[in-house]
Write a structure and sequence with these properties.
One of its GO terms (molecular function) is cysteine-type endopeptidase activity. One of its GO terms (cellular component) is cytoplasm. With 561 residues, the chain is of the alpha+beta class. The chain has 10 helices and 35 strands. Strand 8 and strand 9 form a beta hairpin. It starts with a helix and ends with a strand.
Length: 561
């Protein structure tokens, strides 16, 4: 049996194995149209894909809960966006990159901010990536500083378009620099749909089998430490059709997801990462030379087909944290205390700044809050407040635990049925610089955090619950509370005024200091001082869900150092 016969046999053999390992996504994913371009966050929890119909492409998201993908929901894209396609969700889940047709001709790469299922306005990426030609199929590195994409290089034959892969990096001004075409070993005939893994070294893409063929196979190459690339090798377990597409990698579940004949499929990751040593050598030759003589010479160096396949990379080398699968929770806080008001018609207070500073000291001394993760705002303006909340929205991650504390004046507008916080530049006769409770709720909903706890010690602070009553149900176990996302609030009262010297804050701080439990839920903490506040003031503290912000029944857990 000569070398080419051996190669054919091995390709057929491993293709059969790969086909048996593949399985289709649930029926809820297989609707009218073809599902294409899956991508996933590095924690394996959010899957993005596109569905192609006669009208064009739509984008869809699915969250993974308890190891299973939920039925996907559609993302609302602007109606005037010209033919969006090839979406990719960034590994941190904050951005969606995609391409769309230009106004006159060509195709450009866009991006849009993501908060859950809320999307920002799509904008062309800035810099030197987009031209008057066709730029498509963006793939962002894990750190967000590198971008791989495809560019249509040759349009002389409309029936045989030739693509090439490029790479660009962000410059110091946050714009994409001059793209560099990847070397000839990767760009051979026509290459597109790059997928860079979280290690920023392993690249998968589709490539024409030969210059005469119209078939595309999925290839994989590795970037070496010196910046050169290994010879591309085929991903045999996925190359089952004439037009094959690269997978996205779920390193946590150790699976790969890809599109096959318009349907989403999954396959064990080790079927994708592992390849036979002898196949790697044969394919590198067949892709880079047609010399039968060289192939015969290489055959002498082959490893026996009976040997086990060699790994291109271990799972941990691919940029996934699979040690525990769940990172340690990160505790962050925004602590606000407002004493002084610029408008003389609004009475200044004596204690909120002191209460805020004391709470910061307690949280950083006794609990798992690091000093650099706590923002202390003393008598901030409305602009200061909004800028701080904007920054938290940008920085928050899915495993964050965010505490927001406010002490200062509050106001309830009976006519508008709306509650407000009053920053230091608030005016008594104008609501322009006031901060609506609804604005705070929008931020709470937009934070990409697992848990958010709002503690408000202000007049009429109970208005945060105006659309939903506070509850008195029993607390769950610490483990159950931690697993499910939560958006909760505790307030010093309902729709009543509270005194400058806060009894609520006094007992809150006292219980935080005296608590000796390693883990205590916000609800248990609240229950430990609620009666004391009621017995020593005219207010009735409240605890409950902040409605329509993403609460799923979990709870904020304080971890004592």
């Amino acid at each position: 049996m000569n070398s080419r016969q051996i190669l054919l046999f091995l390709l057929l053999f491993f293709s059969a194995i790969g086909a048996n390992a593949q399985s289709q996504f649930p029926p809820s994913f297989d609707l009218e149209g073809d599902e294409r371009f899956p991508s996933i966050t590095s924690d394996g929890k959010v899957l993005l894909f596109a569905r192609e119909t006669k009208e064009g492409f739509t984008f869809h998201l699915s969250n993974k809960i308890d190891g299973k993908f939920m039925p996907p929901t559609s993302l609302v894209l602007p109606k005037d966006l010209p033919y969006p396609t090839g979406p990719m969700i960034s590994y941190d889940g904050r951005w969606i990159y995609f391409s769309a047709k230009g106004k006159n001709s060509g195709s450009d790469i866009y991006r849009m901010k993501r908060w859950g299922r809320r999307l920002g306005k799509p904008q062309k990426i800035e810099g030197k990536v987009n031209t008057s030609g066709y730029e498509m199929y963006p793939s962002l590195t894990k750190d967000g500083k590198g971008l791989y994409f495809s560019r249509l290089n040759n349009v002389s034959d409309p029936t045989d378009l030739k693509y090439a892969l490029y790479y660009s990096e962000l410059d110091k001004d946050g714009k994409w620099g001059e793209p560099v075409q990847l070397p000839e070993g990767i760009n051979l005939y026509s290459e597109k749909e790059p997928r860079i893994l979280p290690d920023s070294k392993t690249l998968m893409f589709t490539s024409k089998i030969s210059d005469e063929s119209f078939d595309y196979d999925v290839m994989m190459a590795k970037k070496n430490d010196d910046g050169t690339w290994s010879d591309p090798e085929p991903v045999l377990s996925i190359n089952q059709s004439k037009l094959n597409h690269p997978p996205c990698i779920d390193g946590v579940s150790q699976k790969a997801y890809f599109s096959k004949d318009g349907k989403l499929m999954e396959i064990p990751l080790n079927k994708v990462i592992e390849v036979k040593t002898e196949v790697k050598k044969e394919v590198a030759l067949s892709r880079n030379t047609d010399s039968a003589t060289e192939a015969d010479e290489t055959k002498k160096e082959e490893t026996s087909p009976s040997k086990k396949p060699s790994k291109v990379s271990s799972f941990s080398d691919l940029g996934f944290d699979i040690k525990d699968f769940v990172p340690e929770p990160k505790y962050k806080a925004i602590i606000i205390g407002i004493n002084a008001y610029n408008d003389g018609k609004i009475a200044s207070l004596d204690n909120p700044e002191k209460d805020a500073a004391s709470l910061e000291e307690i949280l950083t001394t006794y609990y798992a809050f690091e000093k650099e993760d706590v923002k202390l705002l003393l008598s901030p303006t409305r602009e200061n407040l909004i800028e701080t909340f904007d920054a938290m929205m940008e920085e928050s991650t899915e495993n964050d635990h965010i505490l927001i504390f406010y002490a200062g004046h509050g106001h309830w507008d009976q006519r508008r049925k709306a509650g407000y916080w009053l920053p230091s530049d608030a005016k008594a006769k104008s609501t322009a610089n006031w901060v609506r409770n609804s604005t705070i709720k929008e931020y709470v909903a937009s934070f990409k955090a697992k848990h958010v706890l709002l503690i408000s010690d202000a007049c009429f602070s109970g208005s945060i619950f105006k659309t939903r009553a506070a509850f008195d149900g029993a607390d769950k176990s610490i483990k159950a509370l931690e697993e499910l996302p939560s958006r909760k609030a505790m307030t010093s009262g309902t729709l009543k005024e509270v005194p400058d010297e806060s009894v609520f804050v006094k007992y809150l701080q006292k219980r935080l200091i005296s608590n000796q439990e390693k883990y205590i839920s916000a609800r248990s903490l609240f229950d430990s001082f609620r009666v004391a506040v009621m017995n020593n003031s005219e207010n009735v503290p409240q605890f409950g869900v902040i409605n329509q912000t993403g609460d799923e029944g979990g709870g904020f857990i304080f971890i004592r150092k």
